[in-house]
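Observation: inputs received (chain + S-adenosylmethionine).
Thought: call the complex predictor directly.
Action: predict_structure
Action Input:
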Amino acid sequence: MSQPVAEKISQLRSLVRLLVESSEVVIKEWEAEAAQASEPNNTPDVPSPALYEARRVIIGACGMCIDLVQDPLLRLGEVVSSYFAAKCLNIAVQARVADIVAEADPQRGISVEDIGRRTGINGRKLAQLLRCLSTIHIFSEIKDGYFVNTRTSEYMVANDSIQGGAVTEKLPAVLFDPVKTHSRSPRESAFQEAYGTNSTLWEYLEEPVEQPDGTMGPRPAFNTWIGGMMAAGRAESSATYVDYPWHTLGSRTVIDVGGGLGGMSLELAKRYPDLKFVVQDREAVIEKAELIWKQELPEALEAERVKFMRHDFFTQQPVKEADVFILRHILHDWPDDECVTILRHLRDAMRRDSRLLVADKVMQTTAGSPLLKSAPSPLPANYGYAHHMGNILAIGMLALFNGVERTPEEFSALAENAGLRVVKIWECRGLAYVTEMRRNDYDG
Ligand SMILES: C[S@@+](CC[C@H](N)C(=O)[O-])C[C@H]1O[C@@H](n2cnc3c(N)ncnc32)[C@H](O)[C@@H]1O
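Observation:
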């Protein structure tokens, strides 16, 4: 069914209006940011609320404009083959093209033949890949066959963390399997299909293999993953450290359940010097956590503001009646039944006024939720393209764990099944949220 012309015209005009208004906000905020850059307490990685809002309106409006004006068949073709652009990026990262380009004079760039010689990839073929990326502003071809970095490709320099998810390639095999498609087990996801294992990812990483020195230890990917969790936390969570009122917690103790290397606690410890922490995780991970804290915040260890504890969150929580429990990037790794088990153990350990803070993304559908801020019309309620990345990452959770990034209503259902309730969703800037849960008998 094609959209009536009058409706298309009205939508396009509204979108252009949004673009013009929001662009003025961005310009004003950029100017203010530049003026504040030298001020102490400046947090450059977190945009101001006005800039954050204007940015997502612009991104959403650009995405909707493309959809509105482009031929639908071409657009479908572009989405279905976006995989090719992803592959070009994977190859460019693997070949360290951005690092090679960064060594060249930015006025002159570097020839694709030179990049080809350094990477071992045929120059003419490499040019096809780099042109595909340059067209979407990752690298720029400044004259025929000469490339420079852009503000986006500069982020690839000396950066190992940009990787695509090979596991998702097995997603169709699981989704079309008449039995596995209905599975709610964390052991029947695309990950097990791709790696021919029955282990969950976390078990798999810790399986003993021979190390270079002949001893047995975790798989090499173990270190990449736990470092990656810390990097992902840094990239996605900055706003949660300032948009939730941590300062009101004074000198309370925070139990970071499944805390990994304690990345969230570490950042909070730096900003809120009175807070105390207990970081819990599996044995192999928690051993590494202490080393990281020794390097990054030794004074917290000396002052005994942080303790490290081996703990399986599918068993009884050993720290009873703590003030605050946090779960960052944990529930999204597990299907509903496992999440309810994790939450029940926390509910059993909570005082009546303890709080549980879940720092997972909260998904908003295009139809919206009364618990989340909606985008201005005619954008879809979830700001469309601006929140596309959240949805992409959610597919990763499905592929790796049969996991889910949840809507507010899905979080409420989990909480209810565990004797808790969601009291507030703190919408932080970026893809970050803090969902505050309390015991269902808490009446504060
Ligand atoms: C995605 S990471 C998040 C880590 C950390 N919360 C953060 O935000 O950086 C998931 C963590 O859950 C831990 N984990 C997995 N199964 C666990 C279990 N049964 N008990 C405790 N921790 C577990 C993993 O070792 C990993 O550190």
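Thought: report the result.
Final Answer: The chain has four domains: 5-72, 80-155, 167-218, 226-362+406-439. The CA atoms of residues 172 and 190 lie 8 Å apart.
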